[in-house]
Specification:
Elements lengths: L1 H24 L12 E4 L6 E6 L7 E6 L5 E7 L2 E5 L6 E9 L4 E9 L2
Antiparallel strand pairs: 1-2, 2-5, 3-4, 3-6, 6-7
Length: 115
């Protein structure tokens, strides 16, 4: 009985380790197989944030930024690449949503402003 339990624990551990290493092979920091649609860099940033939509095929999106209180702070329409100027931003963490033109959330994330 103990040998079966030990074998089961080792098997589950190996499975979890394999799944984690495969997620890392795809260079996905979230550990799942979902590909990221938008890259936001550098993070943290002081003066500007680069926004790059991957494989957009000419589609336009809305990039909505929310402040720490959850209120909309900024909105820009993007297609491909965009440079967001951070002059009116203060230090802190901001949440973003990438939305299609129908208002559906395609992806969300956060970035940090450190001036």
């Amino acid at each position: 009985m103990i040998k079966r339990f030990t074998f089961l624990v080792i098997a589950v551990f190996c499975f979890a380790l394999t799944a984690k290493s495969q997620a890392q092979m795809h260079d996905n920091p979230f550990g799942d197989s979902t590909a990221r649609v938008v890259k936001v860099f550098p993070n943290p940033a002081s003066y500007q944030i680069n926004i790059q939509v991957q494989d957009n095929n000419g589609r336009q999106y809305e990039f909505v930024v929310y402040n720490f209180m959850g209120k909309p702070f900024d909105l820009v329409k993007i297609s491909g690449r965009y440079v967001l100027n951070l002059d009116k931003y203060t230090n802190g963490i901001y949440i973003y949503q990438l939305r299609d033109l129908q208002g559906n959330v395609v992806e969300s994330g956060k970035f940090n402003v450190a001036k």
